[in-house]
Write a structure and sequence with these properties.
There is one protein chain. This protein is α+β, with helices and mostly antiparallel strands and 134 residues long. The protein folds into two domains: 41 residues, no CATH class; 86 residues. 66% of the residues lie in helices and 17% in strands. It has one helix and five strands. The strands form two sheets. A three-stranded antiparallel beta sheet has the order 3-4-5. It starts with a strand and ends with a helix. It binds zinc ion. Zinc ion binds next to loops. The site of zinc ion has 8 residues, from loops.
Length: 134
């Protein structure tokens, strides 16, 4: 097993690691070092984690925003549909009311006509009776 010695990029301590490993942790400061093409880079785990967490949080926020937007749109559509229904209902009520008024007027005039007919019949009879008595 070939060992290489390298300096910890964080604290400068000498580390002995296997040559074929791609990453290692400093035994002194705990920093994670990535070993690619012979050079060492320090990996700030906390920074990576923070960045990833932030990315996830941003994504979640975006998702929530989209969800809220979708819900808002849905709500508006429902409202619109409700208004449409209410409008149709009002229109039907209006037409029905108009029809009822027309029917009422018609029956009223029929009633008045019937009353008029009765009155004229009675007065006619009375006139005839009076005429017969004379
Ligand atoms: Zn170190």
């Amino acid at each position: 097993m070939q060992l290489v010695i390298l300096k910890c990029p964080n604290c400068g301590a000498e580390l002995q690691i296997e040559a074929n490993r791609r990453e290692c942790f400093c035994t002194y400061c705990g920093a994670k070092a990535l070993l690619d093409d012979g050079s060492t880079r320090i990996i700030d785990e906390a920074e990576v984690l923070r960045a990833e967490t932030e990315k996830i949080v941003q994504l979640k926020k975006l998702e929530l925003e989209q969800e809220r937007f979708r819900k808002e749109e849905e709500r508006l559509q429902k409202k619109e549909a409700l208004f449409k229904k209410i409008n149709i209902f009002l229109f039907i009520t209006f037409v029905a009311g108009l029809a009822l008024i027309l029917i009422g007027l018609l029956s009223l005039s029929l009633m008045l006509g019937a009353i008029g007919l009765t009155v004229s019949c009675i007065s006619g009879t009375v006139l005839i009776c009076m005429h017969v008595r004379e």
